[in-house]
Amino acid sequence: MKICNRCIYDETTPGITFDENGVCNYCKMHDQMEKEYPTGDAGWKKLEAFAEKIKKSGKGKKYDCVIGVSGGCDSSYLLHLAKKKLGLRPLAVHFDNTWNSKTAVENINIVLKKLDIDLWTYVMDNDEFNGLAKAMLLASVPEIDALTDIALTTTLYMAAEKFNVKYIMDGHSFRTEGITPIGWFYFDGKYIDSINKQFGTDKMKRFPNLWLGTWMKWLLMGIKRLRPLYYVNYDKEEIKEFLRKEYGWQWYGGHHLENRYCAFNHYLLNTKFDRDFRMVENSAFIRTGQISREKALEEIKKPQEYPAELISEIKKRLNISDEEYEKIIHLPTKSSDDYKTYRPMFRKLRPFFWLMYKLDRVPKSFYIKYCK
Ligand SMILES: [Zn+2]
Fold first, then answer.
1. Helix, strand or coil, per DSSP, at residue 155
2. Which of 65, 179, 244, 339 has a Cα at 20 to 30 A from 187?
3. Distance from the CA of 354 to the center of ligand 1, in angstroms?
4. What is the DSSP string of 112-138?
5. CA 23 to ligand 1 center in whole angstroms
6. What are the structural domain ranges in the chain?
7. Cβ atoms within 10 A of the Cβ of 323, count?
8. In terms of Cα–Cα distance, which of 181, 174, 153 is closest to 70?
9. 280-302 as b/e, with b when 16 or more CB fall inside 10 Å?
10. In angstroms, what is the span from residue 289 Cα to ligand 1's centroid?
11. Bridge partner list, 259
């Protein structure tokens, strides 16, 4: 098995190529992004320049930006950075898919209270979310957690519009989260809608789907999206320790365990779709010098651990019998190619989205992945 000499992506990774030194194209992408998004003094200057613009746009308003929060490490740290370091006046925004762990809720509350930041939460209807979740399972696609991602994005725009704010920030960082292999995931509002029409039992009512028309309206309103953590050198273990000491934040005991549905998503990816997210994350840690390649190779050999009650909880909440669950798990796997999506539209609208990317209104990764 050929493995990259620098990270731990191997020859089975979709879209992988190796150069003459045995280094993969994903490591090259990382280096390219390192150049584009500097850290240290240069990164700090960029952040200060953004903060200047954000403050200007927020003059006379209650908030000058909205920040998506999950109770996890990245978004908690982003709140600290925005308020304490950059002097911004953020509104925290949360999409509650009704599957939060107790720790996540406590983390959100404790950090916001200490930073004196208001929270705006959009709580999903429990039955409706579970119905959509079941439809995604029956569609047999790997993007079951796209429901939460899409809904959080929409919720952020809704809050920005409601409070007349021009900047949305999220806690994504390619340095700690890595670069997902090409073709692993695709999702958009139409994808979710077409799956629900085919496999769901109810119409979407409360679910905040990201419809293209509404999204374009928000983009044309000039709402920008920023990822401040791209400009920060960021050791995950150190940050966890810092958050614990400074805020009483708690580690929820495993990656993505802050939300039960998200945890199940990772279980499913691992067991049904043969995708191990630890590869992605650990490769990112190697590229940024947070762990050694040897240690990462050791890490991913260990079996993944999930809470023992996770599967029974899923069956119970989604109202799936043991028999039906077995059937679902063994359905042939499908992908976004098997369902209707906005992809043809995104490609047609490529010049529009290029402009939106240049104006900081959509992330570069969206333009590259969805419009090209
Ligand atoms: Zn590599």
1. helix
2. 65
3. 28
4. HHHHT--EEEEEPPHHHHHHHHHHHHH
5. 5
6. 39-275+308-341
7. 8
8. 153
9. bbbbbbbbbebbebeebeeeeee
10. 13
11. 100
Distance from residue 6's CA to the centre of ligand 1 (Å): 5
Residue in this structure with the two tokens 């390619």, named with its chain if needed: 174
E strand or H helix that includes residue 224: strand 224-226
Q: Which DSSP state fits 70?
A: -
- d(CA 197, ligand 1 centre) in Å: 40
How many angstroms separate the alpha carbon of residue 174 from the centre of ligand 1? 14
Locate tokens 């209650």: which residue? 62
Which pLDDT belongs to residue 100?
85
- The average confidence (pLDDT) of the chain is 94
Q: How many helices (H) and strands (E) does the chain have?
A: 18, 5
Is the whole-model pTM more than 0.90? Answer: yes
At the fourth CATH level, which superfamily is domain 39-275+308-341?
HUPs (3.40.50.620)
Which secondary-structure segment (H or E) carries 236? Answer: helix 236-247
pLDDT at 183: 86
Q: Percent of the chain beyond pLDDT 70?
A: 99
Tokens of 183: 């073709």
E-strand ranges in 97-211 read: 119-123, 167-169
Going from the Cα of 27 to the center of ligand 1, the distance in angstroms, rounded, reads 4
